[in-house]
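Encode chain A's predicted structure.
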Amino acid sequence: MSVSRRTVLATAAGAAAVYASSTPAAAADAATGPTPAPSLKSLSTAADYAVQKLHAVAPTVTAFPVGTKFEKWVYSQNGDWVGGFWPGALWMAWLHSKDEAFRTWALASAQKLAPRQYDTGTHDLGFLFYPSWVTAWRLTGDDKWRTGAVRAADSLIQRYNPRGRFIRAWGALTDQNNAGRVIIDTMMNLDLLAFASRQTGDAKYLNIAVEHAKTAQRVFLRPDGSTPHVYDFDPASGAPIGPNTVQGYSPTSCWSRGQAWGLYGFTTMYRRTGNPEFLATARRLADFAVRSLSPDDVPVWDYRAPQQPYDIKDASAGAIMACGLLDLATATGSDAYRAVALRLLTALSETCLTKNSARAEAVVARCTRNRPAEDGIEISLPYADYYLLEGILRVLKPQDVDRAIDLSTV
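Encoded structure for chain A:
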């Protein structure tokens, strides 16, 4: 759809004003149908296991888990792009258990991300600061977390290219090698900008989020609802070049975790703006992903890799997809999306946990980080643990999840 820049910005500004006055989601909004008793039992058991595992491992964690090697966490001192998920998982564990130790650990871990507020060299500031600092502010009321999250949003919008209307993915602002590169993952970082507009009353953050989402909608969405991982632009002119990939099988394939990021991200942007086109895009991404699931309901790493549906798995894609589908079920009133989300969460809870290993430090196994690079093949990843807990608690304790991450819709 062709829309003038002025119209888009006016719409975004209006959305920011509405979003600023929105109220928290009611618990009833998070449930579009009853949850079968067997699923409830599996999910509750899995959440209990996650809490036990996190409680056992947290006292030994001094940095940010980025993945496992021989079932033990490997750490990053500054958090890399995943630093927000460890404190985020601790917050989810606190919501489920009410054990104050998790609150203490979550706050201490989040504080270690403080220098990243000023990091203009990454598009992943939403991943870093939403599940850590935004959630900390929402659950404690301490204004330092809100202020820091808004500073992170200020850093993120410096990566916006007004000629192409996109937020560039990788590289320092002075690095021209990736200056025109956009990835589907960035859809998940836009909620930090919506948060900043809500908190400051300044529409500029949400304006940029809307512009980026419209660009992503135009270039990533294929007719069948699938997406590539990467899309390249000429950074100087903003002219489109074409699809590409880094973590998917090919520029014409569909990396399952990227598809999940897009599904969840476009649904969130619908909730923050009320734009029905974002909801329609989320539904198309969801429908493709649901059609592509293998019978065991654990996504393969790429839906179009030659060996699918018998290829290696990525349980993290399933956890993210489940959260997005639960969000989408509420937005659309569709019991079908909720039913698939429950299937995914149940499959992960019953077939992908680390219960059979005494040495495992993570909760979720069978995740794949970067198959083409042979990096992290069916290991554990911190975002799988976080999104599994978020998804389960969306079912078991939706009011608590709303308190933590804001499930409201304008």
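Residues 1-31 have pLDDT under 50 and may be disordered.
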